[in-house]
Design goal:
Blueprint (H helix, E strand, L loop, with lengths): L2 E2 L3 H10 L3 H4 L3 H13 L12 E5 L9 E5 L8 H21 L11 E5 L8 E3 L3 E4 L14 H16 L6 H23 L9 E2 L14 E2 L8 E2 L3 E2 L15 H8 L1 H14 L7 H9 L10 H11 L4 H10 L23 E8 L6 E6 L7 H8 L17 E7 L5 E4 L5 H10 L11
Parallel strand pairs: 2-4, 4-6
Antiparallel strand pairs: 1-5, 2-3, 5-6, 7-8, 9-10, 11-12, 11-13, 13-14
Length: 441
């Protein structure tokens, strides 16, 4: 299971903004394709045994894990990203060990491999099944992804979820996957800052945006949809009630948009229980995650039912929290699906990309019969292309997903690791302003 931090709706807005980041951070497209291909082929290098954690430096390249630069027990090295990653993983491991009795993400003390300085202008962080990887941001919109400690905890929790219930990354179960990571990210942030549930700000990714961007954070668990409102970013589109559930084919069924619903339920449960988050609602959510009663394809209602069943004396508070966001823990909440989407007309090739930590979607269209300078190459790339023969692969948390609509054929949705070099090039060209330039993010 692979996890990445920036969601598709934020990427779409940036792509349409005209900012330099729309092209400079577009290198992410090619990098993630290579990474996912390596992952699907079993080529991801596992962490070396021994140390509780090792931070590596990718030296702005893409080879993982990179050269080791600091391990558990070693002093700070003076590289801010390295030392932030070291402090973050130390605090995260302590949270899970001391509060939940869990040794590392697998429960057996496996060493954690981290990589910083991944590529150049890389606007994301992800878990690829073996490594926690962090970009340095683009110097225009995003700062270092090691800077907010909750980003690290969010990705680490994707690894915990992978090793416990393996929530499918699509629709409601995918939104739950995202929300569980935000829940324990909040636990870590509040623990590091010494906050109670009543004094915490409940922001995820605070400090991730650079000065000048009108954003308090990437998400607000207490009030989904209010984290930012910026000319380039747009208004935070997260929802916080099941009545507003977003039906979309983007981002694996809107997992980053709809995670606001279980996020708000967690916040309400936490403030209802009171005290310290990791001793209250955090402990309830962890008990649910490790109960053995959460299915891979759990929807909101079934997961809510498990949290109520393990909540003990707090069962009524937890039940009321879910009911407040429109989810009935007894199983009465409807399961929502994904809508059909229309195909591109004949003579037109359309590609969209969604996913990533910021949950934004970006898209491009090339008219093969028009004056677009990309048309010649796109025509060559789609000649004889049969997307139905592409080997299927499961979507992976916080990583990108592509939708190809070719000349009137039905849309085909493919996770990044399923893309061949030819499909990758097709996406790169269609998502760029011109075939020679880097693609829009």
């Amino acid at each position: 299971m692979t996890c990445q931090f920036v969601p598709p709706y934020l990427l779409r807005r940036l792509a349409e903004s005209g900012l330099a980041v729309a092209t400079t951070s577009g290198q992410t497209l090619q990098l993630d394709s290579t990474l996912r291909a390596r992952r699907s082929e079993g080529l991801v290098t596992p962490p070396s045994p021994g140390a509780a954690w090792v931070v590596h430096d990718a030296d702005n390249g893409t080879s993982l894990p990179g050269r080791p630069v600091r391990e558990a027990g070693a002093p700070a090295v003076g590289d801010v990203a390295v030392d932030e990653a070291a402090e973050g993983i130390t605090a995260t491991l302590a949270l899970f060990a001391e509060e939940f009795g869990r040794s590392s993400y697998d429960g057996r003390g496996v060493g954690v491999s981290l990589t910083v300085h991944y590529e150049k202008d890389y606007d994301n962080a992800f878990w690829d099944g073996a490594h926690l990887v962090f970009g340095d941001g683009d110097a225009e919109v995003f700062d270092r992804f090691t800077k907010p400690v909750d980003v690290l905890a969010h990705e680490f929790t994707h690894a915990v979820t992978e090793k416990t219930v393996g929530l499918a990354y699509e629709g409601q179960s995918g939104a739950l996957n995202e929300a569980v990571s935000d829940a324990f990210a909040a636990c870590l942030k509040q623990r590091v800052l010494g906050q109670s549930v009543d004094t915490a700000d409940w922001l995820i990714g605070e400090g991730l945006f650079l000065p000048g961007v009108r954003a308090r954070a990437l998400r607000d668990m207490a009030a989904p949809g209010t984290a930012y409102d910026d000319p380039a970013l747009g208004k935070d589109p997260q929802v916080g009630h099941l009545d507003d559930f977003v039906e979309t084919t983007d981002d694996n069924g809107g997992v980053h948009l709809n995670s606001g619903i279980p996020n708000r339920a967690f916040h309400l449960a936490a403030t209802g229980i009171g005290g310290l988050l990791w001793e209250g609602a955090g402990r309830v959510w962890y008990a649910a995650l490790t109960s053995g009663d959460v299915a891979t394809d759990s929807d909101f209602a079934s997961f809510a039912g498990v949290t109520v069943s393990v909540a003990g004396e707090h069962a009524d508070v937890v039940r009321d929290a879910w009911l407040a966001v429109g989810v009935d823990p007894s199983g009465g909440a409807p399961v929502t699906g994904r809508p059909e989407r229309a195909s591109a007309p004949a003579g037109v090739v359309a590609v969209s990309r969604s996913g990533g930590f910021a949950g934004r979607t970006t898209g491009g269209v090339v008219d093969l019969d028009g004056p677009d300078p990309r048309a010649t190459e796109v025509r060559e790339l789609v000649a004889g292309l049969d997307l139905q023969r592409v080997k299927p692969a499961a979507p992976m948390p916080d990583m990108f997903v592509y939708t190809f609509e070719i000349c009137g054929a039905d849309p085909v949705v493919l996770p990044e690791q399923a893309l061949s070099d030819r499909l990758h090039r097709l996406a790169r060209v269609v998502l760029s302003d011109q075939g020679e330039g880097p693609p829009l993010r």
